Automatic annotation (TrEMBL):
Function of the molecule: Protein L1 is also a translational repressor protein, it controls the translation of the L11 operon by binding to its mRNA. Binds directly to 23S rRNA. The L1 stalk is quite mobile in the ribosome, and is involved in E site tRNA release.
Name the record gives this protein: Large ribosomal subunit protein uL1
PANTHER family named among the record's database cross-references: 54S RIBOSOMAL PROTEIN L1, MITOCHONDRIAL, LARGE RIBOSOMAL SUBUNIT PROTEIN UL1M
GO cellular component: large ribosomal subunit
Single Gene Ontology MF annotation: structural constituent of ribosome
Acyltransferase among keywords: no
Length: 241
């Protein structure tokens, strides 16, 4: 059996695995349990009660986090002519058409978001087996297949991220970095939870949100009470008064 290092053991010892913490407590504990020397990402994992085998119970959308992700977002755009020029002017990192598709088929994946104009989808569609599993396949439902490439690029650069349930009905999202202030992380957390609740499929049955877990990249998972979102909003409102 593999042995854990002293730092890992010390981090896990700080967390009561049988308890659900308030969002504020979870953020503070996550930072206290941090042991890595680099600026770790902060992740939230939301286990839903959805049956994702049914099309009407799948969850997918986009959200612009109030404080972004704390990292540079690399954008690849599939476009030609004026739309390619528009994407470049908006700040896209790589722009192309068949040449970009060929590059991806050869293994290039150094980008976070892919955007395409509708006329490029026959080309992009051939990359489904490559872009699909990594969550980078352009999709009109989340605004990454559009003629308004300038807006799509700018929104992605500003921190607009996609979310969706995986095969086990869990939504995995990044909230920012451990270097973010508690308030910034809580703002992003609140925005995510409000969006997930807003997007609840009408066909959902039973308990919608089962568990919420907060963690840094190398840190232990911390269970968060999903019912305490209103308390978080009330607390922040009181603090601002």
């Amino acid at each position: 059996m593999a042995k854990h290092g002293k730092n890992t053991v010390a981090s896990k010892a700080l967390v009561d695995r049988t308890r659900e913490y308030t969002p504020s407590e979870a953020v503070k504990l996550m930072k206290e349990a941090k042991r890595a020397k680099f600026d770790e990402s902060v992740e939230v994992h939301i286990r839903t009660g959805l049956n994702v085998r049914h099309a009407d119970e799948q969850l997918r959308g986009t959200i612009a986090l109030p404080h972004g992700l704390g990292k540079e977002v690399k954008i690849a755009v599939f476009a030609k002519g004026d739309k390619a020029k528009e994407a470049e002017e908006a700040g896209a990192d790589i722009v192309g058409a068949d040449d970009l598709a060929a590059k991806i088929q050869e293994g290039f994946m150094d980008f976070d978001v892919a955007i395409a104009t509708p006329d490029m989808m026959p080309v992009v569609g051939r990359l489904g087996r490559i872009l699909g599993p990594s969550g980078k396949m352009p999709n009109p439902k989340v605004g990454t297949v559009t003629m308004d490439v300038s807006k799509a690029v700018q929104e992605s650069k500003a921190g607009k991220v996609e979310y969706r349930t995986d095969r086990t009905a869990i939504v995995h999202m990044t909230l920012g970095k451990t270097s973010f202030s508690d308030e910034q992380l809580l703002d992003n957390y609140r925005a995510v939870m409000e969006e997930i609740n807003r997007a609840k499929p009408s066909a959902a049955k039973g308990k919608y949100i089962r568990t919420v877990t907060l963690a840094s990249t190398m840190g232990p998972g911390i269970k968060v009470d999903p019912t305490r979102l209103k308390d978080l909003v009330d607390t922040e409102a009181g603090a601002a008064a």
